[in-house]
Amino acid sequence: MENENIHNILLVGETGAGKSSLGNFILGKQDEFVVSSDPESCTTDTIRKISNIDPEIAVVDTPGLQDSKGRDKQHYDQMLQIIKKMKKLHFILVVLNFASPRFTCSIQYMIKFLCNVFPKNFRHHIGIVFTHYDNDYQQKINKKKNVDPREVSIEKYVKEIMKLISQTTGEELFLAPPVFFLDSYVEDDNSIAELNRLIGLTKSFPPIEDIRENSNLKFKKEEEEFDTRQEDKYEENKIITYTKQFRRKKYTDYNNNITYSDWELFSVDKKERDIQVQNNSQKSNTQEKISEYTNQFADFVNLYLHCYAGFNYRDMKKKNAQKHNKEYGWGIDDFFKGFSEFHEFQKNYKK
Q1: Selection from 153, 151, 176, 150 nearest residue 163 by Cα
Q2: pLDDT score, position 243
Q3: DSSP for 64-119?
Q4: How many other C-beta atoms are found inside a 10 Å radius of the C-beta of residue 60?
Q5: Is 40 left (phi over 0), alpha (psi -120 to 50) or beta?
């Protein structure tokens, strides 16, 4: 039987932020949630695990936002069902990669989604975790600048989240959400101290109550897209052409983010053709092309002969003028006269 005093922590963030590693770190284990360096989302389902070290702590790991296969809507729906089933939640952590933090449209939409699912008091149960945080390294690269990188991150991202929650709920958020800096891979003194602070704060929270049972993920537009693909297969003396019809869903949310479902095959048309007929058709096309090239060559030769006759007649007239010590110009008229005489000769020859 599950401990009645269990405290649930929900992890949300984009693919690659380190949610699964953070979940394992909180649970004190290395293999509860699958971890991968692959850029595609490794977590494909919303999963809840209870800590064996501290039975009062449970972690809910969610699929990464901006899923590479366009399954964001499916993930949102699944997450909503898990939240409703738990009926109580204590801490919501927005996970950001400290090395490359991004407050993207997907994270903004996720926060709006949570505002729609939970009552307004949920804003006091949200926190931020910066993962991939190596304290010594970050301090070294900023030592000369005399800048604490943690203060820069807090200044930039905490204010953005507070502003977004206030705009969505319609109530001013005066108390900044708690921020944690830890590296689940290094597990240095700083990260362990931050983890203890995170767990202690989680246990101090009363559960978020009155989770809205009728909450649903809403999209501004939901459309269907279609795609036709053809595939030829050779069997004995036949060519079989398969025409396949695919469809998928296209979702546009209120931030104009677009996600897609997977392509689904819904229709297959099969046509058979005799290979001999196909070969005859190919031969006919080849013959037509040969005939076309032959005609083009004949036209070229004919034009060449006309020009040759024109130049030859002009040269003859030029030599005759030089013989009688007369001036001779370009001979354009003589060229066209020779051209025309050859043309008349060719017409009479054909007759």
Answers
A1: 176
A2: 92
A3: PBS-TTS-HHHHHHHHHHHHHHH--B-EEEEEEETTS----HHHHHHHHHHHHHS-
A4: 22
A5: beta
Instruction: Extract the tokens encoding 175.
Output: 């108390």
pLDDT-derived band at 244, boundaries 50, 70, 90: very high
- Helices (H) then strands (E): counts for the chain: 9, 10
DSSP 8-class letter at 122: G
The answer to whether residue 204 scores a pLDDT higher than 80 is yes
Q: Which residue has the higher pLDDT, 343 or 22?
A: 22
- Residue 312 CA: distances (Å) to CA of 306, 307, 317, 325, 328: 10, 8, 9, 20, 15
Strand partners, 131: 97
DSSP state of 31: S
C-alpha–C-alpha distance, residues 208 and 211, integer Å: 7
User: Would you report the helix, strand and coil content of the chain in percent, each value rounded to 5?
Assistant: 45, 25, 35
- Cβ atoms within 10 Å, residue 240: 14
The strand pairing partners of 126, in sequence order, are 92
Among residues 139, 96, 49, 105, which one has the least CA distance to residue 259? 105
DSSP H or E segment with residue 350? helix 332-350
CA geometry: angle at 179 spanning 177 and 183, to 5°?
155
pLDDT in tens, 287-331: 778 888 888 888 888 888 888 888 888 888 888 888 888 887 778
With a cut of 50, say whether residue 68 has pLDDT above it: no
The three-state DSSP-derived secondary structure of 181-224 is ECCCCCCCHHHHHHHHHHHHHHHHCCCECCCCCCCCCCCCEEEE
Q: How confident is the model at residue 200 (pLDDT cuts 50, 70, 90)?
A: very high
